Amino acid sequence: MNVLHPNPDRFVTDMLDGFVRSYPGLARLQGTQVVVRAQFDRKVGLVSGGGSGHEPAHAGYVGYGMLDAAVAGQIFTSPTPNEVLSAIRAVNQGFGVLLVIKNYTGDVMNFEMAAEMAQDEGIAVEKVIVADDVAVENSTFTIGRRGVAGTVFVHKIAGASAQRGDSLQEVKRIADKVAARVFSMGLALSPCTLPTTGKSSFELPAGQVEIGIGIHGEPGVRRGPIAPLAELVDTLISRIVEESSLGENDEVALMINGMGATPLGELSICARYATARLDDLGVKIYKSLVGEYMTSLNMAGFSVTVLKLDSELKSLLDAPAHAPAWR
Amino acid sequence: MNVLHPNPDRFVTDMLDGFVRSYPGLARLQGTQVVVRAQFDRKVGLVSGGGSGHEPAHAGYVGYGMLDAAVAGQIFTSPTPNEVLSAIRAVNQGFGVLLVIKNYTGDVMNFEMAAEMAQDEGIAVEKVIVADDVAVENSTFTIGRRGVAGTVFVHKIAGASAQRGDSLQEVKRIADKVAARVFSMGLALSPCTLPTTGKSSFELPAGQVEIGIGIHGEPGVRRGPIAPLAELVDTLISRIVEESSLGENDEVALMINGMGATPLGELSICARYATARLDDLGVKIYKSLVGEYMTSLNMAGFSVTVLKLDSELKSLLDAPAHAPAWR
Amino acid sequence: MNVEHVRAWLYGYRDRLTAVQGLLDELDNRIGDGDHGTNMLRGFRAACEHLGEAASPSEVLHKVSMGLLSTVGGASGPLYATAFLRMSQAWRGMEDISIKDLANGLNAALAGIQQRGGANVGDKTMVDVWAPATECISSDPTEHGVREASRAARQAALNTRQLVARRGRASYLGERSVGTCDPGSVSSAILFECLAITLVEGMEADPWTAQVL
Amino acid sequence: MNVEHVRAWLYGYRDRLTAVQGLLDELDNRIGDGDHGTNMLRGFRAACEHLGEAASPSEVLHKVSMGLLSTVGGASGPLYATAFLRMSQAWRGMEDISIKDLANGLNAALAGIQQRGGANVGDKTMVDVWAPATECISSDPTEHGVREASRAARQAALNTRQLVARRGRASYLGERSVGTCDPGSVSSAILFECLAITLVEGMEADPWTAQVL
Ligand SMILES: Nc1ncnc2c1ncn2[C@@H]1O[C@H](COP(=O)(O)OP(=O)(O)O)[C@@H](O)[C@H]1O
Ligand SMILES: Nc1ncnc2c1ncn2[C@@H]1O[C@H](COP(=O)(O)OP(=O)(O)O)[C@@H](O)[C@H]1O
Ligand SMILES: [Mg+2]
Ligand SMILES: [Mg+2]
Ligand SMILES: [Mg+2]
Ligand SMILES: [Mg+2]
Asked: Would residue B54 show up in a list of annotated catalytic residues for this protein?
């Protein structure tokens, strides 16, 4: 919306308070910005997180069969190592902890520092780095791709693996497998507004779209003219197909993700065209998710994510999970 | 978003296509804008609907334990009697059909005409009219209150009643009971944009909010200055409390509903303040729903709904349901 | 008025709606949900498609009614559909409609609108136009009366500007509905104007935009 | 440089951040996510709170490092925290820091930043400022060298404008990152400027806005 929060410092804590009050199965670790399950199972712990402003990520994925804790930073700012460490300590049941990290310099550094600190305390910690955004060229000279909405599939599938009692190494293997097979790309029709400052994240002339955006209100990789939804969807899918060498008889999970201010009706229209395009390519859609999974405050736009499935991933994707934002 | 649909006539059908393609348990009645369950149970049928632009309403509530059919009109335009009649015929399993109607002149007239036509064909049809919007004064000189987000509770609870095998009269009794105990009010920080014409639904000067909006992009009952979320929430709750004579030891279900372009994080902040306010009043929150349930295209704003529970309603609210937009 | 005249009336109305759709949407945008012109045009385009197959005035109107019923939706759909259905019923079996028959038909239509929608004169709805226009033709069933009805309809539509809406979507605005003319009243007044153009030598379409906005 | 000087340096930097927060946010808005000034100010406000309790230069920097680590987050948090931690380790047990000791500390800090973030000179990150500034003081460990470091830091920060980012958030923009100075380089250059103000008689703060935007 356009409401400035009267006290920017309380934005995130107010939000987390409202969140845990609404979901009895969740709790906030006292004195932190960490949301955890109200009770933990005896299994490998799963921790994710990142800057705030991506709601329902990440606290919305805390629950049975998904994450055990989500660490929230300030808006678009990675959480600190201390906060991540609190989460690791809380969820560790003696089977080790897997960190699901989106590939941003800040997230990677802060989570890695926390991992080092936890290892110093004798906790087994592994990590998976998700880098699904095919908008960014993959090159050895750069830090590689960003992690975006595809991360939700890692939460779900690695979560199912942990929930059925797999070892830390096995959960990590599966998480890495998902990360290697998931591809996303997004675009924006308008910037987001930072609720703490009221500023827009970028300026976009009328009639233009930012193609290849991240989830932090950054401008995209390039600008293009606005086009009908069918064409915009095509632009994203074409690039995904190219990078994933998706083809006939592949089975996929498809996610059409709203960036925060996109009406669900328009996401359904995107789903219609994405599905039609994949049908044309002979790609089989095993499961569709349409809604807001990984947002960018009040940005208008959407992203498309494709996960290449096999029988192992399918059964884990179908396994029961109870988290506020999973359906 | 701001994408004009190239063919406005196809907006709704494209949307419904995308929707049913994404949810294998649903289907579209051929040649209509009616979304139905892929298979029907032997029970009283439940039909709702209205103009489009309120996604996930109403097709998102079609499924086990909720609606059997949702009829979609053009954007913000009630569906025609013919379409409603098709839905009634499709879901009727010989146990009669209940129509859940939001109290708008157009909806009431079109659904009533369909009911008359169905009764002519020998189908038992009853209706419940939802008028939960306390923004509008209730007076015998007017058509009374509008139906807004509270309708979703009627879908859920009447749906559970039908699903357990209650008779048409009993389902209607329960639906009427929910309608009598549900109270809503909303506000907007920006208008919505009609995707078919690109026009804004109203003009709102910077720093102002429309208080007491409906769900069709109408201006509110009055304008007020923008205020911190805590105060805005208070304005809505105060009026609801007044009209519902809510007080100590009442148990309620609370819904914080986004109007389409409100980030989930901000809805959580609203939930935090709404909860705190109800706590202060000694009202017990039995269940919270926070998210987009009944939207107004890409309007920025939110509504608060309170349903007064008793043990009958609680058990029906808790009964299992599987519909895309229920959780 | 034979079947050709009735068709000419409706074709003329449909063509007129093409021109005023934006105007009606704009009025509805101010006090409703902005779709009245779109609804009317969608409805009359569809409803006029197969009128060539109808053999009598009554059949023409019956087709129009069914066409509206299956394409408009909203509040205006059932109301206009009911109006044309009642007029069609009043003219059943007639080949040529006298202005007296027209008056009977309009009275039946008005009754239908009020029965379906429950509005009275002064509630800021299309009834505010149908009532005085119907009264003009009833009390003076001549070409002159038809011309007067068109004038009265226009004036009544403009007069809705001052009213507080008590029916339909605009009623939710309460006092804020004052200052804008009721869109359904304007579309109704144009229907009466098109009727007069069909029946009265020398009548021409008057522009609306300047006066109504 | 005794413990008082070190504190003065950091307090000065914190106060300066209050003034340039908006500038740093704006730079980050253009090629990142708009929070670098907010992050730095939040961090240094918290980190400077209990510096009075620290008894030595090393302890002061250790407190700063821990304070940053627990409040900043983002990319800059671990990098600045690592820099101060390494400097603190280099100065362990020392009461008075010579400019040569300072050079050692800065070299350790720079190595820490590069180890943690993996950036090289030319990648359009704070390394582009830390490297030449550290080099100035190392090769000329005098007041003059410190003053030159401040100048070199400023120039290096301004020079990042031409570069294509290869590390950090700005790297996602590719060629589109050209034309804007790197915010972390500017905040680093100001840190060197504050150091010179503390150590060099007659040094004064130079405004940034006009040159950098
Ligand atoms: N109860 C009623 N009786 C008579 N006319 C009505 C009534 N309610 C609404 N109308 C008319 O319908 C018009 C609005 O029609 P329209 O915009 O097409 O439908 P909706 O309000 O469903 O969007 C109003 O301008 C008014 O003239
Ligand atoms: N790998 C890296 N090595 C050195 N400095 C970096 C690196 N990545 C980012 N930076 C610095 O961090 C700054 C951005 O910090 P900040 O905006 O606070 O964090 P974030 O990018 O997480 O929002 C950049 O301007 C750059 O100078
Ligand atoms: Mg950041
Ligand atoms: Mg309408
Ligand atoms: Mg309307
Ligand atoms: Mg930043």
From this structure: yes
Residues of chain D predicted below pLDDT 70: none
Residue with tokens 């379906």: C116
Q: A165 and A193 in one domain?
A: no
Does a structural domain hold residue A10? Answer: no
CATH classification at residue A46: 3.40.50.10440
Least confident of A61-65, A140-144, B271-275, C5-9: A140-144
Report the complex ipTM.
Answer: 0.90
Q: What domains lie within chain D, and their CATH numbers?
A: 3-199 (1.25.40.340)
pLDDT tops 60 at residue A2: no
Task: For residue B7, report the distance from its CA to the centre of ligand 2, in Å.
Answer: 45
Over range B149-153, report the average pLDDT.
98
For the residues of B140-165, what is the DSSP string, one character each? TTS--PPP-TTHHHHHHHHHHHHHTT
- Ligand 1 — pocket residues by CB below 6 A? B 77-78, 105-106; C 28, 32-33, 35-36, 39, 74-76, 79, 113, 117-119, 125-127, 167-169, 182-185
CB contact under 8 A, B141 and C166: yes
Question: Of the residues B181, B212, B235, which one is the last residue of a structural domain?
Answer: B181
Q: Which of B165, B181, B197 is the last residue of a domain?
A: B181
- Contact at CB, B271 and A52, closer than 8 angstroms: no
Same domain, B187 and B166: no
All residues with CB under 5 Å from ion ligand 3: A 76-77; D 33, 35, 74
A to C contact (≥3 Cβ pairs closer than 8 Å): no
> Residue C106: its pLDDT value, please?
98
Distance from CA of B166 to the nearest CA of C (A): 32
Per-residue confidence band for A7, with pLDDT thresholds at 50, 70 and 90: confident
Query: D172–A80: do the CB atoms touch at under 8 Å?
Result: no
Measured from the Cβ of residue A200, the count of other Cβ atoms closer than 10 Å reads 15
Q: Is the pLDDT of residue B196 over 90?
A: no
Q: Is the pLDDT of residue B183 over 80?
A: yes
Q: Give the Cα separation of C85 and C108 in Å (integer).
A: 9
- Can you tell me the distance from the alpha carbon of A147 to that of A159, in angstroms, rounded to the nearest whole number? 18
Residue B115's domain spans which residues?
17-181
Identify which of D126, D127, D128, D173 to mutate to test ligand 2's pocket (most ligand atoms within 8 A of the CB): D126
Asked if B137 and B84 sit in the same domain, the reply is yes
Q: Which DSSP string do the residues of A34-92 spell out, in sequence order?
A: EEEESS--SS-EEEEEEEESSTTTTGGGBSBTSBSEEEEEEETSPPPHHHHHHHHHHH-
